[in-house]
């Protein structure tokens, strides 16, 4: 059985594919940055090239 090492950021509008070892784990979901992990309450967007979340 293959091991998953990458997945899409759990933020619904984010397009980022993240490495699980570098991701921010919050409530069992994986995010690319603090902004996505906090639901963009204080930080807008993720500032990754080509992503419009």
Tags for this entry?
53 residues, mainly beta, Ribosomal Protein L24e, Chain: T, two-stranded antiparallel ribbon, 4 strands, 8% helix
What do these coordinates show?
The structure is a single chain. The protein is mainly beta and 53 residues long. The chain has one domain: Ribosomal Protein L24e, Chain: T. 8% of the residues lie in helices and 23% in strands. It is built from 1 helix and 4 strands, in the order ββββα. The chain has one helix at residues 34-37; strands spanning 6-8, 17-19, 24-26, 29-31. A two-stranded antiparallel ribbon has the order 1-2. Strand 3 (24-26) and strand 4 (29-31) form a beta hairpin. The longest helix has 4 residues, at 34-37. The radius of gyration is 11 Å and the shape is globular. The model has no long low-confidence stretch (mean pLDDT 94).
